[in-house]
Amino acid sequence: MNTAAAAGSGHGLVVADDRLVDSIGGYRLVRLLGAGSRAEVWLGHRSAPDGAGETVAIKRFLSGTPRREIDTELEALGRVSHRHIVELVDIAMDPDDRPCLIMARLGRVSLARLLADRGSLAPGEAVTLLVPTLEAVAELHRVGVAHGDLRPGVIHFDAVGAPVLAEFGRAELIGPFPVPPEEYSLTTARLEEHDRALADCRQLVDLLRLVLGTAGVHSVDLDDVPDNATELRDALTPSLFRAANPVPMRFDVPPIAGPPARIVIARGGDAPEAEASAAPSLVLAGAHLPAWLESLAGEWAQKTRDRTLRAAQSLRTVRKPFWVAAAAMVAAIVATAVLLQPGAGSDLEPQPVVAQPTSTETANPAILGDDPLAAAEALLAARDQCFEARSVLCLDAVDQPGSAMLERDADAIRLAQMGEESAPIRVADATLELVEELGDAVLISVSVEPDAATASLLIVRSDAGWRIRELLFE
Question: pLDDT (tens digit, 9 = 90+) per residue, 158-170?
C-alpha cells in the first residue's frame, strides 16, 4: 500500500517504513488536506483533558525532498512571529526520520478561491486584506526572509477572517537573523539590491493591483513605488486607508454593492499640528470591525500621528530664509564635488557599482586569513552562534561540506529545534594550542575551563576559507 492509497481510503493514515502510521508528534492524523510534489498536509488533532483538544495542520515532506529545502522552510517559519504569518507550532519527526512542520490550522478558503467564487471584493475588504499583507511581507524582510511566491493562493484566512500569509515552500533566507531581534537583518541598500527581495516587492505590487482592480479602487498609485517592503508598506498604507473604510471579509455572500465608503477626516484649523493629528484619525463608526482589525488600524494611526506631529513641530519654527540658504549651500557643495572629481567632464567610462554580498552569513576576516588559531577561534564562536540561533544553514560557513562534523552538528540543532537542548563547546572558556600543521589541514588542542575538558580540533582550508573538519573530545 502506498501513501496515496492510504489517504484515498478516507482514513488518517500514512505509510512509513512499510507500515501504517496514524499519528505524528502526538497528533492523531484525521485526514489529508492537500498534497504536492514535495509534501502532504494533514489535519491533526490532539485531545485535551477538558475535552476541547487542539487542531493543527501537519506538513509531512515526501521522500526525495532535499534536506536543505526542508531546513530553509523550517528556519524561515521559525524566525517570524506575526499576527498575519502562519504560526509554526512545533516540529516533529515522522517514522522515516524526516521533519514534520506542525502549524496553526487555517481555513480552506484562500484569496484565490475567494476571487474565483465571487469575482470581486468590496473596497473595504480590499483594505482589510492588503494592509496586513503589506505588514507581513515587511516583517519577513526585516528578519531576513523572502517568501518567493506571493500570489492569491498563498493568502489564507484564520477563524476570525484575518488574512494570513502561508505556503513557504519557496522561501529563501536572504540575511542573518537580526541581533537584537527587533533590529533589521539587512540595510535598506542591500535589500534593494537583493533579487529575491525585489521579486517579493514586484509580486506584492502585482497582488495589490489585482485586488484593488477587482474592488474598483483606482485612487492608490502603484506606478512609482519603493523597491523595499518596509517603505512600500509605509507609502501605501495611508492611501489604502484613504480609499475605503476597512470592513470584515465576507465569505458567504456576494460582494457588498455601492460606492466605496470613505474615511471621514476631522480637520480643525490651518495649523500643521491640527491637520497632522487629524489626518490618520480613522472614523470607523458603524463598521463593527473585529478586534484584530481595530487594533491594526489604531496602531497604524497612532504611529503615523506621532511621527507627523514630531515633524510638524520641528518644522514649524524653521523660517523661509533658512531653507533658501540651505538650498544654496547644498547646491554649492554638489557643484564643488562635481568640479573636483578626477576626470570630471571627461568621456571616461562610468565605474560599475559593486553590489554587497547578500549571503546569509558574513564571514569573519579571521576565517579567511592565514592564522589557523585565529580562524579556529572564529569558527568555534560562529558555531556557538549557530546553536544559539538554532540555524542548520548557518553551519555552511562553519563546518566542512560533506563532513561527519556537519551532519552531527545539524542533527544536534534539529534536536534543539524540537526542544532537546544541546550544548556545544563554548569558545569563551577554551584555550587553543597549535599541535601540527599538515598542509591545508591543522590539528589544534582545545582545553575547556572550568571542567578541564580537552578536545582535538581539525580544521581545513579551502577557497571559501577555514572550516571545521572534526572536533573530538578525549
Answer: 988 999 999 999 9
pLDDT single digits (tens) 413-460 = 888 877 766 556 566 567 888 888 888 889 898 887 666 678 888 899
State how far the Cα of 173 lies from the Cα of 77, in Å rounded to an integer.
10
C-alpha closest to that of 181 among 389, 324, 363, 341:
389
Domain C-terminal end among 263, 296, 321: 263
Those residues whose C-beta lies under 8 Å from the C-beta of residue 377, and which sit 6 or more positions away, are: 366, 427, 432
User: CB–CB of 338/330 below 8 Å?
Assistant: no
Grid cell 537584537 is found at 180
189, 168 Cβ separation under 8 angstroms: no
pLDDT higher than 80, residue 21: no
pTM recorded for the entire structure: 0.63
Contact 155, 278 (CB under 8 A): no
DSSP bridge pairs for 169:
none
In this structure, the answer to whether residues 137 and 226 fall within a common structural domain is yes
Residue 122 and residue 80 share a domain = no
- Contacts for 240 with CB less than 8 Å, ≥ 6 apart: 126, 127, 130, 131, 220
What cell was used for 228? 523595499
Beta strands at 39-46 and 23-24: parallel, antiparallel or unpaired: unpaired
If one counts every other C-beta atom within 10 angstroms of the C-beta of residue 286, the result is 8
